Amino acid sequence: MKILIKNGHVIDPANGIDGVTDIYIEDGIIAEIGKNDDLDGVENIQVIDAKGMIVAPGLVDMHVHLREPGQEYKEDIETGTRAAVYGGVTSVACMPNTEPVCDNETVVRYIKERAKEVGYANVFPVGAISKGLEGQYLAEIGEMVFSGAVAVTDDGKPVENSALMRRAMQYSDMFDITVISHCEDMALGEGDMNEGAVATEMGLRGISPAAEEVMAARDILVAESINCRVHIAHISTKNTVELIRQAKKRGVKVTCETCPHYFSLTDEACRGFNTNAKMNPPLRTAEDVLAIKEGLKDGTIDCIVTDHAPHHPDEKECEFGYAKNGIVGLETSLGLGIKYLVKEGYLTMSQLIEKMSKNPSEVLGIAKGTLSTGHSADVVIFDPQKAWTVDVKELHSKSKNSPFDGFELYGKPEYVLVNGKVVINSGELMK
Amino acid sequence: MKQDLLGLKDLSAQQIKNILSHAADMKKVVLSDSKKIPNLQGKTVVNLFYENSTRTRMSFELAAKYMSANAANISSSGSSVAKGETLIDTAETLDVMGTDILVMRHNMSGAPHLIAPVIKASVINAGDGMNEHPTQALLDIFTMIEHKGHIEGLKVAIIGDISHSRVVRSNIHGLTKLGAEVSLGGPATLMPKDIDKMGVKVFNNVQEAIIDADVVMGLRIQLERQKKGLFPSVREYFRFFGVDESRLRLAKPDAILMHPGPVNRGVELSTSVIDGDKSVITEQVTNGVAVRMAVMDMLINGGF
Ligand SMILES: [Zn+2]
């Protein structure tokens, strides 16, 4: 099978490409990048005219909850990866807080097998740091890495025991993987939404930004003391950005990620007891949003991830205090990035693509996020000027818990290729 | 279009005044020998209480009965989620049984806001979590007007656990809309961040909050807050934040003392001030029935 993507504006940050050219794909592999007009006599070729569109490496979302095994009523590997490709995401790293917990090689293998059978996108399992996510004993990290885990995290919960966190970093370093830290001081973090005027007025329990910051500071200092890597998940506050900025200056091996909701929404979105604006960490203030955007701009923040967290309507259409944390995000992340970062001038399109593909691939150590010849052809093609309106009922995830219903965004993917196969064609899923 | 009473946040100053003036008529009924008017004849009022509160429930029940309504009470402890039935399910069930007014007390902020849009009955918020308790604030304001004649320009000091109090939030909305000046006093650990942005003054020194007040209101302290470490001991709380005679003397000579009840004697207020000549605490209870009658009557017969 041969595919030629013609006349598109190709952006490949890994190779410094940012201009109009063609991409030739053969047998699922990127064979050539460059003008290619001589197709006489070439048979069985599909030509995609990408004129006026951006052609970029398929997006890599390193923080996704696919919910399988165990919570298939919220999402499963098939529906989660279907939502992913609709959003231009060709690779996802899935979090281990499943039932059973992904804390051993059997579950890692199960996820990989299921993804091979029913997945639309590449799936990279992330293993647990501790057995059962209980924060007591190290999970069998080595075996999980050997069966395909690309990182470890207890995401959803912090590792409260600092010594265990230190050992996790040391141990993971031997296997050349990164520890991803969900930073939350549980006692300070007890609450419903960000602490401040909105929570106070609504009579909801406020979560101090310090709940995130004290743990980010701890993990930075622990990593620094043993010269190991750490990746700070879903950062949301001004001071966390600053802590990481200073740590990077000192040469600490710290990377981090934020989510589209932390650069596009504030705690004002919780008004009216809107449970689709309830998440952990919580939506913060306008000042924090600005700091996140500045952190993305100056390179402090490496990656943009969704923290895609599907929940059943019964878990959201309830009292705010009882509602589950989290929102779906796979189908809105690119659009939010274009609207709030590129159009507002914080990032170039190339920098946005870099934070949504190349950088997360590097943190995970996977051969994704690039259009280099010889790599499997994961490609997203979209028109960044073309507006579309989010309708949660139309989302392809099993769950519809998004705060972005009715938002006008840009650049819905027109074509998405996974391993050289066209899975989204003119915006629709290929059967 | 049915109307609800979810909070004073949603009402205009004029709507609040309308309720208060109607409550004055209703108070005459409450104080009369024949406590029966036909205004809610044939209507059904259901009290759905997820938290125990005998006085508030009784106040609503009597208010309904004085107006000839059918009244039923449902008490449910703990969360409905734990029982497998959602709050929306429960409310819809009561709705289709013919409820005209659903009075709800719930431990979670926003619970009445969740059900109001999905049922036909009018919803009265009888206290939701730490958010609002609008009929309590209305009866507080009604009592203030009875004594002071007006709200505009009054200085109202509210003392105690501000963080967890729905009474204080409703009072802030109502009093500021009517032009009062509100001062809050209490320990920093029980003072929520940025509450000054609701248009009030904040003091950790309760004396400063009380100086020259026309109205001093104590708030109930949940004694289990001490176990969570929000204050060291009841003794120390009273010493620094309790309202006693010497602190009350800092208010205007004709000041009144209020409390939503039930009072922890010797914690929020000293026994001497509870039973003293400034105290209007028992009047508040009577006024509560009148205000709730006014609210229910207006919800069914024409709106605020
Ligand atoms: Zn997390």
Keywords:
heterodimer, A: Urease, subunit C, domain 1, 11 helices, 21 strands, B: 304 residues, five-stranded parallel beta sheet, 12 helices, binds zinc ion
Structure description:
The complex is a heterodimer of chains A (431) and B (304). Chain A has 431 residues and is an alpha/beta fold. Chain A has 11 helices and 21 strands. The longest helix of chain A has 17 residues, at 210-226. Chain B is globular. The longest helix of chain B has 20 residues, at 281-300. By secondary structure, chain B is α/β, with parallel strands linked by helices. The model of chain B has no long low-confidence stretch (mean pLDDT 95). Chain B has a 5-stranded parallel β-sheet with strand order 7-6-5-8-9. In chain B, strands 2-1-3-4 form a 4-stranded parallel β-sheet, sandwiched between helices. The A-B interface holds A 192, 195-197, 199-206, 272-273, 314, 317-322 and B 9, 79, 81, 86-88, 106, 108-111, 113-114, 128-132, 166, 169, 192-195, 197-198. Bound molecules: zinc ion (ZN).
Write down the overall mean pLDDT of chain B. Answer: 95
Radius of gyration of chain B: 19 Å
Strand-pairing-aware structural class of chain A = alpha/beta
CATH level 1 name of the largest domain in chain A: Alpha Beta
Helicity of chain A, in percent? 25-40%
Number of strands of chain B: 9
Q: Beta fraction of the residues of chain A?
A: 15-25%
Q: Helix/strand-derived class of chain B?
A: alpha/beta
Give the number of helices of chain A: 11
Identify the quaternary structure here. heterodimer
Kindly report how far apart the N and C termini of chain A lie: 17 Å
CATH superfamily of the largest domain in chain A: Metal-dependent hydrolases
User: Mind summarizing the main beta sheet of chain B?
Assistant: 5 strands, parallel
Mean pLDDT of chain A: 97
